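Notebook, bench 3.
Goal today: get a predicted structure for Peptidyl-prolyl cis-trans isomerase from Neocucurbitaria cava so we can plan the truncation constructs. The sequence was checked against the plasmid map this morning, with no discrepancies at the termini. Length recorded as 194 residues. Pasting the sequence as submitted so the record is complete.
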Amino acid sequence: MSSSETGLPDGWEVRRSNTKNLPYYFHASTKDSRWEPPAGTDSDKLKTYMAQHHSSKGVAPAAFAATEGKIRCAHLLVKHRDSRRPASWREPNITRTKEEARDLIQIYQGQIRAYEEGAPNDDPKSLSELATTESDCSSARKGGDLGFFGQGDMQKEFEQAAFALKKGEVSDIVETASGIHLIQRLVRHEHASI
């Protein structure tokens, strides 16, 4: 894998963690490893590479098994410079304002609504499709899928919105200390991934 293909700076490569079954960034010479891309990464190239090689459609690890009282959701997160941790796999240093983040998520919300309603739109997409390339959360690798969680597992605002959703429903815009989210409550599938 060449750095020109991944968009990573020279010496960096994408590897997969055996314990978490998630991609991470590794520098062979320095042995540096990290979840977030290193400075100097070409975000557009990395996005394309990750969508092609590290999307995990069809993979349903044990952590995604249903448990009593828990729900399963996916989300799309847009961080801003005032987020709790203004960095992501897409951008090592997020500088957009909260207003810019809100504008972006409103565009994504329109694309998702058009997809859900089958309405005409320039670029209708599912939340999962958008999360894979646009979400600032590492769950992007799984189409935004957070697996099952219960009361008290997530930030309060996120949890309240998630538990209020019907299966398959997408939330309105939700703000937390992490950034700005769109959340979709997933329908349980016993023998298939989402």
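Residues 3-53 form a domain with the Ubiquitin Ligase Nedd4; Chain: W; fold (CATH 2.20.70.10). The radius of gyration is 17 Å.
Flagging this for group meeting.
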